[in-house]
Write a structure and sequence with these properties.
Helix content: 25-40%
Structural class: mainly alpha
Radius of gyration: 16 Å
Strand content: 5-15%
Shape: elongated
């Protein structure tokens, strides 16, 4: 959908991008965080392994949203940006 919207509105120089957040340290994932077995599975699934396998912060997503809204992203459109610490690799 993101790519189609980007194509539909490109002639008007309207950009459309999507942010695809991964596991974040929020109330929504609290039950996940409270289960040691599940957190270990999430941690070990991280490409950086146990040393880097932690949940992201809402600020990680927010900083990418600010980037996409800035002039620094003026040459981006139709992008699905994973903000997940590398889980989709």
């Amino acid at each position: 959908m993101t790519k189609q919207i980007a194509l539909d509105y490109a002639q008007d120089e309207i950009h459309c991008n999507a942010i695809c957040p991964g596991f974040l340290d929020t109330a929504m994932t609290q039950s996940l965080q409270n289960t040691a077995e599940t957190m270990e599975m999430v941690t070990m699934s991280h490409p950086w392994g146990a040393s880097g396998g932690k949940l992201g912060k809402p600020e990680d997503v927010a900083s990418n949203a600010v980037f996409l809204a800035s002039d620094d992203a003026k040459w981006l459109t139709g992008v699905a940006l994973p903000v997940d610490g590398g889980y989709v690799i």
